[in-house]
Predict the 3D structure of the following.
Amino acid sequence: MLGNFTYHNPTRLHFGPEALSHLAGELKNYGPRVQLIYGGGSIKKSGLYDQVIAILKEAGKEIFEDPGVMPNPTVEKLYEGCRIARENNVDLLLAVGGGSCCDYAKGVAVSAWCDEDPWKKYYLRMEEPAGRILPVGCVLTMVGTGSEMNGGSVITNHQEKLKIGHVFGPEVFPKFSILNPNYTLTLPKYQMVAGIYDIMSHICEQYFSDTDDTTSDYLMEGLMRSLIHSSRIAVQDPQNYEARSNIMWIATWALNTLVAQGKTTDWMVHMLGQSVGAYTDATHGMTLSAVSLPYYRHILPYGVHQFQKFAVNVWGVDPAGKSDEEVAQAGLAAMEAWMKELDLAMDLKSLGVTQDMLEGIAKGTFVMKGGYKVLSPQEILAVLQESL
Amino acid sequence: MLGNFTYHNPTRLHFGPEALSHLAGELKNYGPRVQLIYGGGSIKKSGLYDQVIAILKEAGKEIFEDPGVMPNPTVEKLYEGCRIARENNVDLLLAVGGGSCCDYAKGVAVSAWCDEDPWKKYYLRMEEPAGRILPVGCVLTMVGTGSEMNGGSVITNHQEKLKIGHVFGPEVFPKFSILNPNYTLTLPKYQMVAGIYDIMSHICEQYFSDTDDTTSDYLMEGLMRSLIHSSRIAVQDPQNYEARSNIMWIATWALNTLVAQGKTTDWMVHMLGQSVGAYTDATHGMTLSAVSLPYYRHILPYGVHQFQKFAVNVWGVDPAGKSDEEVAQAGLAAMEAWMKELDLAMDLKSLGVTQDMLEGIAKGTFVMKGGYKVLSPQEILAVLQESL
């Protein structure tokens, strides 16, 4: 059922091979001091770094470099970014990279002028931002997180072994994002498929909750069918623009608040995966793929109706002559086969998790309400053991 | 294929039974002079008028009434609205009603401070607005047009026998819209089903173009499946909140620019229907339903692939043992059966069209490119004759 909600997503998206041509126009809306956020050398190798620098200089901007954003941005890096932003009184945070850069930029956006420890305020206590928020722009080079059109910001604290995401409101969303599917074509296959599974997981997290008849479910079924179709083309032919452009667009709409309307969600696969990430620094999408099937098989009995719809409407399972539970199980089997086609991590061992870590990972897993079953600590451990 | 585009939809939507509680907060963003736009007596009968007036007064607003917006807003009414806005120097146009009120409000928004004839500038010459644009807010009481989250504005000139829609950019979109599905429950069944078919037609207009593999197609298939499902519940039980809330939400997403990305479109059913509307003043959705099937059967040979996908993915037609064209035809037959279930107008005669009007209607039909077949004047006339 669609009850009370407010939908507001003001991010302006420039999509396509010519998307970067809009950067100059966007820059006019902000003052001259730009903090340029990026990761390692990939944007220098591809030439994108030089292109962006040229556009910034042409626009008369003063550039404050903030490189070295890691795949799972750390709280130490967050503090460093805040220092750069504050000392230089920057007017715009421009993130050039994947979801990590964009997540990090949003973290800096709310934290730079925050007068207490942002880790405690935003990630441990989950408070809403007060005071000055710096505007964020994004040039996306990797696909999966949806960070380019939402308020999500995941930060990792290795010392406390915690990886926590805060979902901020529209005032923290990127003001603009530049999405050129061609930037994603050079990504190593491992990163590409991890991103694809991240998208799939975002949709599943929202799909597997409630049994109402909600338009959101139909939209998600469409997104999943499109993703499955395009991903099969992309793993065979990573240079296929049509497939990669669809995947980029699906990623945005999988997690920009639209398909969540009317759904209660618990995001338990992400809670499990993030805890694994805090212990191993493994690629985010792979931590999700490794725990998904044991988790879904565990909760299936509590949400048979939706798992059955998933099987028929997303995977084309023929329900004739099968019980509801058999149909539901056949859907997960079809998903498993697809995951193996993509060569995703199917267990935690392959990500470096050892038996002795499981108890800590279980303890670091936030247990959320909103799904079919609130897991007990024993169940969390059992799912992780099954995933090992 | 998803090529170059910019997606930007900044309208803030407040949805659900409590949506009106957000009006006071929205009003704070504007000056004290509010032009209150509405149609006839229905919002007075339902009590909504009194509620809105109370909120406006509580917010200290000065109210300038602009009632009498007709189902197909006329150019004379547009001139009147501009006069009210200009003479009173209003700060906000608040439309309370259906798509007509909202379309009209957007027309006034761009025309009030326009120093030439807005009919000529915006509707005949299709120019973009320059100069001051008044902000629009919307409290929606009818569902179908999607006007609450787009830049569409259809105005009718009875003297010139023209009904023309201009689709303005995001600067003209309503700043906020209040969507309470309960407001739609009291609508007469004729208006409800006409609105449902308007939604279906919006999706079909965008779906039947291109044969690329685009995520937009999958999203539209999801929206159509949800609409068909909910409409069948709503015609049996108009008080069903779940069904009516889904229909309201589908209407918004069917025409807010999302599902158009990657699609070329010709909007020919609307071009035909609008010309019928200029001659008869018939309900918009019914003019669309009356011409749809003859038009689609006419173009089917040029777009068999997409009509076949429509049949299988939207209507569940089993393709086994059928040629592509037979599958495609079976899809339209399924749509026809659904339209009859809803008791839609299936021919133009029932809308008051007579044989002698056909030539004029054909002449008033703008022929657009972007679909499977650019129709010749003879073909337009043939489709209308078939629809009679």
About this structure: The two ends of chain B are 37 Å apart (CA to CA). Strands of chain B lie at 5-15, 33-38, 62-66, 92-97, 136-140, 152-157, 162-167, 176-179. Chain B touches chain A through 47 residues (CB under 8 Å).
